[in-house]
Every structure is written in structure tokens, then in C-alpha cells.
Amino acid sequence: MTMNITDDGSTATTSCGAPSAAVALFRSLGDPARLAILRRLAEGEARVTDLVSCVGLAQSTVSAHLACLRDCGLITSRPQGRATMHALARPELMDLLASAEQLLAATGEAVDLCPTYGTHPQEPTR
């Protein structure tokens, strides 16, 4: 996932005026596996195999999520022997997630029941 930067270095905007970089950031955070990976990396560096056991996904899937997070500048990777160690690039990301948790504590049910993005209660079957 890449962020849209114009030729002059400014951030591009969407048709509604939202900064494209903000849209890309929140899309990168919009996957449960990527959030789980970020939470694990907040505890310290980890190898792909550590993350596979943490999120319970295939190694190739975890690697794809790591590539997305790396492309967004949210994590870094460095070789260590035959492995690659991954870490948070921006610790303030955890502040953003903590703020999101506070917002969800205040609006959680409304967000969860949102007909566009939340979960939908099951209709009773007849």
C-alpha cells in the first residue's frame, strides 16, 4: 500500500477532501491481522515465525501484511542472521490505537452496529 504524494511533496487529497495519506493509513490499520501484528510488535521485535504463531495465519499471509505495514512506514525490518526482525517504526502509533480504544469505549456499540462497517445482528431464521 502506498501513500499519494504529489510531485511537489504535498499530500494528495481524495475527491471528498480527505488526505489520501490518511485514507491509506487507516486502510492499513483496518485489518484485524495487521492490528494484531502491530500490537505484538509494540512488545518488541519479532520474526515472521513469531508473528505466525501470534496471529495464526500462514507465513505468506503474514509476510504480505508486513509488506503493507512496511510500505506505509509503520514498521521496519532488519536482517539478523538468516532471519529478519520486524519492529514498530513509529511508537506513537500505539498512542493512536489507544485513542481509538477510548473513542470506541465511548461509541463502540454505535460503531459495531454501523450498517456500513460494523457487524450486523443476525436476522432470526424462520
UniProtKB/TrEMBL annotation:
This is ArsR family transcriptional regulator. Keywords: DNA-binding, Transcription, Transcription regulation. It holds the Pfam family HTH_5. It comes from the Bacteria. Gene3D superfamilies: Winged helix-like DNA-binding domain superfamily/Winged helix DNA-binding domain. The lineage of its organism: Bacteria, Bacillati, Actinomycetota, Actinomycetes, Propionibacteriales. It comes from Nocardioides panzhihuensis. Residues 14-108 form the HTH arsR-type domain. GO terms for molecular function: DNA binding; DNA-binding transcription factor activity.
